[in-house]
Amino acid sequence: MSARQPLLKASSKLSISDDGNDDNNGNKKQLLINRFLDWQRCFRRKKNNNKYIKLYDDVRQSDKDKPVGVLRLVTSNEAMNELRAYAKAAQIVQEVFSSLRTVLSLNGSKYEQKRYERELYSARWSSIRQGAVFGIFTGWLSLTAYLAYAVGFISGSFFMSSNDRLSMNISNILIVVPIFAQSVNFFSFLVPFFQSFSQARDAATEVFRLIDEGNDTSINEIDVWKKETESIYDIDGDIEFDNVNFIYPSREATPVLRNLSFIARAGQTTALVGSSGCGKSTCISLFLRYYEPSSGHISIDGRPITDYNVKQLRQNIGVVSQEPILFGMSIYENIRFGKVNATQAEIEQAAREANAHHFIMQLPDKYETLVGERGIKLSGGEKQRIALARALVKQPTFLLLDEATSALDNASEKIVQEALDRACKGRTTIVIAHRLTTIQNAHQIYVLDNGSVIEQGTHETLMEKEGGKYQSMLKRQQMERIDDDKHDMMSIQKAIEEEKKSIIERTCLLSNSQIVDVNKQNPKPFKQRFVFLRLLSMNSPEWITILFGCIACVLSGAAQPMFVFLLVKVVDVSN
Asked: For residue 285, is pLDDT > 70?
């Protein structure tokens, strides 16, 4: 799904569509059923009256199909447009708040605000068009209902004054006319329900579309929800990519992998290197079965990975990516995501293996420290070590490292790399590296270019190939890091001391921020009238519109009393 639709947009659509379904159901169905029963009661009563009803029945049989058809078409299109606009607006909000520091550093607040307002403007006009159509349709139904009264009383007066055998009295008219008027009013009462159900239907369409995408067999996530009789923890062996070709669904004209073949031996470290876009990270996605190869196959110890349940396969895989994702929970809960039934001892052991236990114990709340949204309260190295602990807590057979240290500074890289080297021992590991100095001890290195393997071997054998891709990449990186190496003489112990100092400073800052002045009086509760006045001031641009709306409400509310008054006058005149 992520290749066809941004995740944030999918999340926004699901949230907004679900709200639309909640808002447009509930007791509205009960009210609709009650009104329908009232209409059926009127329909049965009309059959018990005389033949005058058959003559008057033609008034009710107005052409409702065409207006209803136009209403359905317009509201459906505009409701879908409004839903899409709100989904885009919600996506913008999520993007901005999740990257707020970046937006502020680039002075992009005004730009993002205009983007948000532009989507709201589109949703506004869709809502206005819906309201206009519903207003016209409601007015037309109200006109039809009052015309039913007018035609009924006029025709009834003719029958009363004639000597026809269908002559009637005022009692007959007062029975028949309201029956037809109420039957017409039933359709008028349906208008808001029709609008609500139309919006709910369009919202449900988006939800079902997302569900259908989730059930797509190419996504492989259905197996995750299946109940299993047993868990498999003994998946082990060589990982083999055999003539694998792959094309992303969103970029069908650009193949990513072309007849890719390599073997990652069991218990050894295999490195994939190459320029950006050569397909390294795609190999990780295919092994995790986020996608299926366009052709070729991937196997473990000669057995295709498609033979394994997706959930069982991923139970045996630990993943550490370039940009670790932490959730806005405690450190303990973030590590426990790797193994939901992990004990405190297992979590602490995983943290020790990831070189994270030391700095965690320096924090005020230790493992219960909240990391903030996406781990914003922690440094890059700290987040990376927690992500590594999360991957190690389930003791995976396979370890996938996707440029796990490329975003770190030199000091943090040394600490994290030491933890990674220790974690790789005895595990089948695939390392994707940008800094070639981090994979010099790998048992096998594959150099990828344009989706295929162009060189393979150990670090020593690849360096012996004059003019080779690997050799040129390493020399270029060494030249770029000459200046950095002058400042890279800090030992790992010194880096730990610097980190400890940073932790102490943050601890003091956090402690100071939590000091509460007990002598300080609590502010007085904000009076409700000030809230109402502030609300009025915020709506000052809409005062004219609100005024017209209030006048329209008064006139609409006065319609029924005036109608009753005129009806009484008609009865008096008839008597």
From this structure: yes
Q: What is the mean pLDDT of residues 479-492?
A: 54
Domain end: 502, 527, 544, which one?
Answer: 502
pLDDT above 60 (res 486): no
On whether both 351 and 392 belong to a single domain, the answer is yes
Once rounded to an integer, what is the mean pLDDT over residues 301-323? 83
Answer yes or no: is 232 within a domain: no
Strands in 452-457's sheet, in edge-to-edge order, are 317-320, 398-402, 428-432, 269-274, 444-449, 452-457
Q: What is the DSSP string of 130-163?
A: HHHHHHHHHHHHHHHHHHHHHHHHHHHHHHHHS-
The reply to whether 34 and 119 lie within a common domain is yes
| 473 inside domain | yes
Residue 533 lies in a domain: no
What 3-state class would DSSP assign to 560? Answer: helix
Cα–Cα distance between 524 and 9 in angstroms, integer?
42
Q: pLDDT of 161-204, one tens digit each?
A: 765 555 566 676 777 777 776 666 666 666 666 666 666 666 67
Which residues fall within 8 angstroms of residue 146, CB to CB, at 6 or more apart? 563
**Contacts of 377 by beta carbon, 8 Å cutoff, 6+ apart:** 369, 370, 371
Report helix, strand and coil shares of the chain as percent, to nearest 5.
60, 10, 30
448 phi and psi angles, rounded to 5 deg: -105, 145
Q: Provide CB contacts within 8 A for 68, sequence distance 6+.
A: none
Both 274 and 418 in one domain: the answer is yes
Residue 160 and residue 356: Cα distance in Å, rounded? 97
142 and 26 in one domain?
A: yes
Q: In sequence order, what are the residues at sequence separation of 6 or more whose Cβ sits closer than 8 angstroms to the Cβ of residue 317?
A: 287, 288, 396, 397, 398, 399, 400
Asked if residue 195 lies in contact with residue 138, where contact means CB atoms within 8 angstroms, the answer is no
Please answer whether residues 3 and 248 qualify as being in contact, where contact means their C-beta atoms are separated by less than 8 angstroms: yes
Both 113 and 168 in a single domain?
yes
Q: Is the pLDDT of residue 49 over 50?
A: no
Instruction: Examine the fold and report which residue of 485, 502, 519 is the final residue of a domain before the chain moves on.
Output: 502
Task: Give me the pLDDT at residue 520, please.
Answer: 46
CA distance 47 to 179: 11
Count of the separate structural domains present in the chain: 2
Tokens of 496: 């730990």
Residue 29, domain CATH: 1.20.1560.10
- What's residue 514's pLDDT? 44
Are the C-beta atoms of residues 356 and 382 closer than 8 Å to each other?
yes
Integer Cα distance of 390 and 338 in angstroms: 5
Are residue 279 and residue 314 in the same domain, yes or no? yes
**448-456 average pLDDT score:** 86
- Confidence label for 47 from pLDDT (cuts 50, 70 and 90): very low
pLDDT of residue 186: 64
Lowest-confidence range among 15-24, 144-153, 207-216?
A: 15-24
Residue 554 lies inside a defined structural domain of this protein:
no
Same domain, 323 and 435: yes
Q: Which domain holds residue 193?
A: 7-214
Q: Are residues 201 and 255 in the same domain?
A: no
pLDDT at 105 over 50: yes
**CATH code of the domain containing 402:** 3.40.50.300
